[in-house]
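Review box. Two proteins, two foldings.
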Amino acid sequence: MFFGGTEEEARKLNGLVFPHPALVFKVAGKDLYVRALAMGARPDPDTRLKTAPYWNTDGPRGHVCPGTMRLPESADAASIPHWEAAYFHSEFTHASGAVRLTSHPEGFIGLWRSLAGQKSFPGRYLIDAGETLQEFVTRGDER
């Protein structure tokens, strides 16, 4: 992962390798939305989603601030791997809003510091996003 911005402790984590939770990506026009899954199993419409524990991604809606992302040209299903790559090749620079992104006792930086070099992401640190996969996919996303 790449960390930028003014947070010195985050910059110390820049370029390290981390495990990630299973993620759900949604593209609407030129907007990207990301949610996490508690388990790595394929979700169904009633699966409860979790807040994606990443800077540049707001907790309430999962909307991604594109920052340094190089946005793909298309928004079709075949382009999802390109959106995912753009997301992880960009710099995570700032929290988006005042919502907690993780329940880790040491907060966001503590979560990623503890995960450096680990093999799996501990789902216990994910926060409920307050919606199911069906709600996430079908809701309108007004800015």
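Next protein.
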Amino acid sequence: MHSQAITEFGKPLQHVETPTPSPKGTEVVIKVTNCGVCHSDVHIHDGYFDLGGGAKLPLAAMKLPHTLGHEIEGEVTAVGPDAKGVKVGQHYAVFPWIGCGECPACLRNEENYCSRPRNLGCSSGFGGGYASHVLVPHPKYLLDYGKTPAPLAAAYMCSGLTAFGAMKKVGKLGPEDDVLVLGCGGVGMMGVQFAKALFGKGPLAADIDEGRLDAARKAGAKKTYNTKNPDAVGQLQADTKGGPIAVVDFVGSEATFQFATSVVRRGGKVIIVGLFGGGMSMPIPMFPLRALGIQGSFVGSLPEAEEMMSMVRAGKLDPIPFETRPLERASQTLDDLRAGKIIGRVVLTP
């Protein structure tokens, strides 16, 4: 098995060879055909999450070398003796947000909230898709993607599921309600698509990059706003008669949190998805006085992934922009993503 792995945090990935896994019990071996590059990979590669004020959440407990990659699509090449319903040669997208199977969250079918996760590519000891092969513990995590392009099917396993899970938290919209997608990178572009599919109309979109805003308009955003414009807050509130009912922040920075809470209308909610980092502060009385809800959203559950993929198979979503690169360019791709040079998604092809 070949992989591009972290051998030292913050340093270029290294080529690593290990024995190809042999499946036991319900396990399935997938030969990776496509693996998306996510901003979470950047944080894991850095070795920490930024908590603001100079504080960091280090990933020192993660065992190295570690293989990144949680947006995985590939071909079944081997199955354990108890793996039912799958055959060698079949292609699937892989749900990576795997839990322990025993805790209260897992028993609620919310494995993505497990306190002892086995997330492929994100949890220590569980390698991901920046590799020629990946070991999946059970066939239930293999999802049919129909006629969807395989690279895009891979991206749905995080950027798609993250956007879908966040938009589901918005709830039902009234006739004059609007949702704002804040940040139009790969996940935000998925957010535009799922907002259209779930609410029957394009969302508003905001970003600091005109190229991304142009892509969002082409993808169906109702109207776009450059947050560097000093009139953006006032213009957005005027256009929505007081602000959007929900802001889905796909960046998760101090600046985007400030923008989100400035524009959301009274009784609305801010749903934070992105992990860019930093800290936030707001006077406590403002929460009840504005009836403001602040909620985090972390990817999605397996039932949500199955619901999402049924929409994907039915062709209810327009594809987001994506490009493929060979696995050997994984380090360069992480650098490009870190520098904000990517529109849509880059998918590695081992």
